[in-house]
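Q: I'm writing up a methods section and want to include an example of the input and output format. Could you take the sequence below and give the corresponding predicted structure tokens, formatted cleanly so I can copy it straight into the document?
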Amino acid sequence: MRELFAHSRSPQSGCRHRLEDHLRGSAGLARSFAEAFGAGEVAEYLALVHDVGKGCCAWQDRLVFHAEPMGKPVGIPHKEAGTVLATQTVGRQLAAVVQGHHGGLPDQDKIKDVLAELRGAGPEADRAREATAAVARVVPEILRNDRILPPAWLAGLESPSRRALALDVFTRMVFSCVVDADYLDTAAHFAGGKPRIGVRAEMGELLKRFEWRRTRLVARRDASPVDELRERVYGEALAAASGAPGMYVLHVPTGGAKTIAAGGFALRHAAEHGLGRVVFAVPYISITQQNADVYRDLLDPPEGSEEGPVVLEHHSSVELDEEDGAGAWARLAAENWDAPVVVTTTVQLFQSLFARKPSAVRKLHRLAGSVIVLDEVQALPDRLLIPILSVLRDLVEHFGVSVVLAGLDPESWTRVMRLVPA
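A: Here is the clean output for your methods example:
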């Protein structure tokens, strides 16, 4: 019985990545990510079977005798065996997670075509059956007699259109967990270490730092006629933060210190409700950069501290090429938003929510159990409001997210609410 491998030799350890280690390692990570929204078992199984197709002799021979010595891809499809197993155990909709874990989420017609081909007697079907039998000898849990059911709330949605949208969001969230787990476990093999997982932030401690530095900032600032307004806005934002998770609106006039009020609300709300991340999204890069500077001043540890950075700034104008220090942390954290506070653009956020490519969707699962602050919401075009608000509603209702719509004047708020789906 030959040993099965998932990846070529690591330049650090000199060893190949055993397939059973990769499948189980990815499955454990995917489960830990998806437990934030009650889908741990589903994500774990999909990650466990995502590379089963690598178990056939043809794939293993190409890895050892072609890909590894020549530095080229293996060139043999390996997603089909896991797609069949996923269809049998979690259903065809979620089988798209396995079929798309490299190229991107396919539509259901593609899944139907793949399954039809694998029921035949062609070379693809033979390789899939061979790979499944080989991998089952070392990872027997890929073969299950029972089905894994999605969360009960999905079946409880009575409207077919609501259920279809919710299932699509659920599939994307699970896809994000599996893809991120696959990336992290593979990178750890080639780096010769453990998967890079950030430490969960203590939001209560961050809130204390934020408020202390804000108090110091206010004391040093020259007196202004709007100081009383700013203090009232900040106090009301903090008071509102104790409310139940859900969707909030922050009306603040120009000069009312909206950025700091939104930050105070988000951190206190996260601390009070056990949420693990705050994401600020702004439509303009110039404002995104300004806001990131404000939050870094209020939240990042002092220079020379052993504590890691807190605020990740992520948009197209950020330089993420540094190989060490805070630059290296930002480059890696930007791949999957593994940071306590993320300051980004609405383009980055909505690309993750609606894209199909693994690199874009990979960070989506980090939104579960978070506070999302959408700044300058009035700048969003009307034609995008319905899909955006529909997805945000699903995140709030089913994924433990609180959303703050900030910057809206009363007229714009009326326009937005008129477009909120029933």
